[in-house]
Specification:
Layout: H1 26-63
Length: about 90
């Protein structure tokens, strides 16, 4: 007796497989190593730049004036509307 498989996913009739990627060449590996070494050296300097920018933004934010409070707009008084009358029929 054959068991049917049930899936919680919607059927995907046109599903494609992703092709495998070729292994990196020697030149690509050399460039990757160079870039990673530059980032390793520059990392602490970049951390200092981020920390200084964070401190500076906090100091500048403290010195910013508080925004003016929004005042409600005074609307002109409207006249009271009472019970209406039906319009006169046209003869």
């Amino acid at each position: 007796m054959r068991r049917e498989r049930y899936s919680l996913r919607a059927p995907q009739p046109h599903r494609r497989r992703i092709a495998r990627v070729a292994p990196p060449t020697a030149t690509q590996l050399a460039w990757r190593a160079r870039i990673e070494s530059v980032l390793r050296v520059a990392g602490p300097a970049l951390d200092l730049v981020l920390a200084a920018g964070d401190r500076l933004s906090r100091v500048v934010d403290r010195q910013a004036p508080l925004p003016e409070p929004v005042l409600p707009i005074a609307l002109p008084p409207q006249r009271a509307v009472g019970a209406g009358t039906a319009p006169a029929p046209h003869a």
